[in-house]
Inverse folding.
């Protein structure tokens, strides 16, 4: 059975800026035990073919991407071709366009537009997933948060989520509650931990901070999430060391 544990390469983005570095990085990630990665933050001059070949050589599967929403919307053919090259079905976006974030009305319009894009992608075998930050927990004039609006106004058959447990907690929400609420609409999950330094919130390796991992992992298992993707935006040590600590701690939690 394939491992659920994956690495978001944004964590080690500084080591993914040249073709040579990218190939070395995915090899190092594989040596830690990871079997899958999500693509994000790599150098623009690295060809898609080199990315796939490097991952294949390292024995790494590309489980998900982050691509711009306008690419999905305006270049469906290119989006599909890219993900077929990568042999990857989960196409993620890292947030809504800025003009969608002005009001409940604009968030709702985005949810409906994205649903149509997601439906077209689904016809080609891809799954659209939306990655949240904490600003989607802001409440708007209709009393709903942006995350609620997308969840309720997006098409439940096509508008899927890539919930980030750190950002849910950061925004004052319960990661466990949201995971259970999203259910099958959350096939991939971003794992990152939160710790404190004085009054400052910091990203932390999985299991090294204060999030309720017992509850989070149980919820992920309950909803049948396929991938638990480790992402640490900034690290207090070498990012590769952080990825390894997170991997080892997740395995110690019983995650396969």
């Amino acid at each position: 059975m394939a491992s659920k544990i994956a690495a978001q390469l944004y964590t080690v983005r500084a080591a993914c800026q040249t073709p040579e570095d990218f190939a070395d990085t995915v090899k190092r990630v594989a040596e830690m035990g990871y079997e899958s990665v999500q693509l994000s933050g790599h150098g623009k001059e690295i060809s898609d073919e080199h990315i796939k070949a490097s991952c294949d050589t390292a024995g790494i599967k590309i489980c998900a991407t982050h691509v711009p929403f306008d690419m999905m919307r305006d270049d469906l053919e290119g989006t599909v071709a890219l993900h077929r090259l990568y042999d990857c079905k989960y196409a993620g976006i890292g947030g809504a366009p800025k003009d969608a974030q002005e009001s409940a009305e604009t968030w709702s319009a985005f949810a409906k537009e994205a649903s149509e894009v997601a439906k077209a992608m689904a016809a080609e075998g891809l799954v659209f997933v939306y990655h949240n930050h904490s600003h989607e927990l802001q409440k708007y004039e209709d009393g709903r948060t942006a995350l609620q609006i997308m969840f309720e106004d997006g098409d439940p058959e096509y508008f899927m989520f890539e919930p980030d447990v750190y950002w849910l907690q950061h925004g004052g929400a319960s990661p466990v509650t949201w995971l259970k609420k999203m259910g099958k609409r959350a096939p991939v999950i971003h794992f990152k931990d939160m710790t404190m330094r004085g009054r400052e919130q910091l990203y932390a390796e999985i299991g090294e901070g204060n999030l309720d991992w017992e509850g989070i992992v149980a919820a992920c298992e309950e909803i049948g999430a396929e991938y638990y993707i480790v992402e640490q935006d900034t690290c207090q040590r070498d990012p590769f060391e952080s990825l390894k600590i997170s991997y080892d701690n997740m395995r110690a939690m019983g995650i396969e």
Q: What stands out?
A: The CA atoms of residues 184 and 224 lie 7 Å apart.
